[in-house]
Amino acid sequence: MKAWEQFIDLHEESLGKAATDKWLRSLKVLHFDAGNLFLEASDPFQIMWFEEHMRKKVKEGLFNNNNREIKVHLSLAKVAKPLLKKSKKSPKKPEEKPFALTFDELDTHSTFNTFLPTDENRFAQEALKEAISTAKDAHPVFNPLFLYGKVGSGKTHLLKAAAKALQDRGLRPIYCRLETFTEHVVSAIRMGEMSRFREAYRTADALLIDDIDQLGRKSATQEELFHTFNTLHVQGKQIILASSCPPKDLQHIEPRLVSRFEWGLSIPLTPPSKDSLKKILAERAQMLNFSIKPRIVDFLTDTFPSSPTASVRALEALALRSHIEGIRTQMAQVNLSLPEAAKLLSDLIKDEEEKTLTPEHILKTVAEHFGIRKDDITGKSQTRECALPRQIAIYLCRTKLSMPYMKIGDLFGRDHSTIMSSFKLIQKGIDSSDPNIAPIVSFLDKRIG
Question: Where are the stretches annotated Domain IV, binds dsDNA (predicted)?
Fold first, then answer.
């Protein structure tokens, strides 16, 4: 089919010849007419790759001579099993696990009662409580509820608290991270169980999804979420989403989805200030019946700066461990010294130190955003699919870590002049508000923190 061949040729430059040959040209054309093209894939992974990377491009760029859209239909090749005699020596192949949806767990600590809001975040908690109190009775007034804020602002705690409160009312909510939702989509496609996937998600009494900002460039996931959202919304089921940014700042997500995220009420959350965090820690210590001196509170906020959650968890660990150690050594909690606290929390302090921003973290974040591998960024490919992410990663390593050009060059396997050129190119794009550069860098800068 000429239109299909032209479509492949058009995208070969951006995808690279190797990827094009492996994933597109290897698709077998079964038959076609003026408005339909039927292709056969050799394995499920080829279908998954097509749905994730090409489905949207096909809708936007595959047309017949009359400028009508050509719909692409994919099927999986049926492989005939050869008749072979069983051999006692040949090992048995492990059987594929049956399709099952495993959802993220709700920890017992994350409830409304244990959420210690700041004045700025109190409205979010009250809005969720109000939505849950009427969940059985009528269509939600605000649907969806969209929570957004930086790490440590309490989004995940509130989502889990809402899901737990819904369960306590006898309802069946689904809480999951976006990563889990994506894994379920991929697994359902691979195993031919989309009907069971849809039945599970679209019959829930409420849907709560965390990390929705990670939806970018996941075409198949976006398609399923769009229809799941519509089904639940029409049924009057509450939808609650959480993200690191407001809907208008989401990147590489279909406009029809973003517009739905904006249908209801968007609520900003802010991490507590240092003074507010100290108050939260003092209140939490009181709830735990743990006597704690101001110097220990200062120690926790200074030693665990990555997020308020890290400070609270350190306090909880300190309360438990000092109680156990006190029983063993008659150590008085109220007179707990800084060296004693540091010793009891040595493992958590080590974990906190490892959270310090590194080039590896920047590479991982940029790769995930663009839907490629870290090796693609540091590799030799010059396609735009890899070149732009590489240039942005170079820029972020320079601005976020103040790395010397020579050291960045060693990381990316390039000389310092190439690194300087990449940095200047991205800086120019930011200064000129290039829509292909500036918003992406801004989004990644906020996400990296």
Answer: 323-449
